[in-house]
C-alpha cells in the first residue's frame, strides 16, 4: 500500500482500482473540459499571506452550515453513481462524514437509497440532493422519503435541466450494469470489490428511483428516462413550491451568476452553492472560485454562500472561506478516496483536507476559522 499524503495519491490509486468506465465518469468534465481544469487551476493564482510571531495555540475549525454544527467548513457533495466507485459507496461515504463531523449529501441519482443510507448510518442526519423532474408526484414522494430518512437539509440542484455533453462517457458507452465488452470484463474480473453497487451488501441500482418510477431498471433505460423526466421548464415558482413542500433548510445548488444569486436570495432559501457542477455542464463558464467573490458581495449579507468545484486541498478550502464561502463541498476528492480505499479512503481524504486547512490557517496567523477573511489573501491575487 503506497503512503497516502495528499488527494492526488488517492486519485492515482482510484484510477488503478475503479473500472475505467466509472473512473472516467468521475474524473471528467463536459466538452473541452476547460471549466473543469479552471476549477482547480484558478485556486493556485490566489496567494496566502504568511504571518509570524502570532500565537497559534488552541485552533478551531468548527463552524456552522445552514445553522448546523460542522467540525470544519466542508461537506460531501452529491455525486450520482457513487456506489459504482465502490460497493455500498454512498453508505461508506456517509459513515466517513459522520465520523469526521461533517454533512454528507446523497444524490437523487445514487445507487444506495435514502433508506439504505439512513439504516447504514444509524439514522444519523444527512442531506438530500433533489433534481427537479416533470413528475411532481415523484418529487413529493422523494421529499417525504427524505424527511422520513432524517435528512436535515435539502439541496436543490438548479443547473441540470438538460445535460452537458461528456465525451468520455459517450466514448465508454457508460452504462450500469456495465455492458459486457471484453475490456470491461477483464477490468472487472480483477477488481470485484471496487466494481459495482450491485456487489455490495445488497444488489442495488439507483435506489431512489428503481421501484418508484416504472421501467427504470438499468442505466440505458435510465438515460432515456432522465431526458424525459428532468424538467427543462424549471422556474423560480418551482423552487418556491419545493421550499414550501419541504419546509426545512433549503440550499440552492448550481448558481454562477450574480443575478441568479439575487433571485436565490429573494426565494428565501437558506444558502446558495456557487457551482458549475464540477465542470460537467456548461464548459466555457468561469471557475467556481472566480465566480464566488462577486456573489458574496451581492448577497452574502442575506443568505449563506457555499461553493464547490476543484477543491482538492485544505488550502483550497481556506481560500474559498477567505473569499466569503461559509462552507465548501468536495465531490471528486471524496470519490477518489472511496475508489482507492472505500470508507477508509474517504476518511483519509477528509483528514488530509482538515490537516492542510488547520496548518495553512495557522500560517496565516488565524486560530479560528470564523475569523478567516480576505485579509489573509495577498491583494491583487484574488
Ligand atoms: C456530480 N455532481 C452532481 N451534482 C448534483 O447536484 N447531483 C448529482 O447527482 C451529481 N453527480 C455528480 C457525479 C460526479 C461523478 C461528479 C464528479 C459530480 C456535481 C457535484 O455535486 C459537485 O458540484 C462537483 O463534484 C464539485 O466539483 P469537484 O469537487 O468534483 O471538483
How many domain units?
1
Indicate the low-confidence ranges by residue numbers.
184-195
Q: Could you tell me which ligands this complex binds, including any ions or cofactors? A: ligand FNR
CATH class: Alpha Beta
Percent helix: 40-55%
- What is the CATH third-level topology name? TIM Barrel
- The gross shape turns out to be globular
Sequence of strands across the biggest β-sheet: 3-10-9-8-7-6-5-4
Oligomer: single chain
Radius of gyration: 20 Å
Going by CATH, the architecture would be Alpha-Beta Barrel
How does the major sheet shape up?
Answer: 8 strands, parallel
SSE topology string: HHHEEEHEHEHEHHHHEHEHEHEH
Helical segment tally? 14
Strand content: 5-15%
What name goes with the CATH superfamily? Answer: Aldolase class I
Q: Strand tally, please?
A: 10
The assigned structural class equals alpha/beta
Summarize the structure in words.
Its cofactor is FMN. Belongs to the FMN-dependent alpha-hydroxy acid dehydrogenase family. One of its GO terms (biological process) is aerobic respiration. With 382 residues, the protein is an alpha/beta fold. It has one domain (7-376): TIM Barrel (Alpha-Beta Barrel), CATH 3.20.20. Helix content is 42%, strand content 10%. The chain has helices spanning 7-17, 20-26, 34-45, 89-100, 114-120, 136-148, 167-172, 182-189, 219-229, 236-246, 258-266, 288-299, 314-322, 332-363; strands spanning 63-65, 68-70, 74-76, 105-106, 127-131, 153-157, 250-255, 271-274, 304-308, 327-330. The strands form two sheets. It has an eight-stranded parallel beta sheet with strand order 3-10-9-8-7-6-5-4. Strands 1-2 form a two-stranded antiparallel sheet. The longest helix has 32 residues, at 332-363. The radius of gyration is 20 Å and the shape is globular. The structure holds ligand FNR. Ligand FNR is lined by residues 25-26, 39, 77-80, 107, 109, 129, 157, 253, 275, 277-278, 280, 308-311, 330-333.
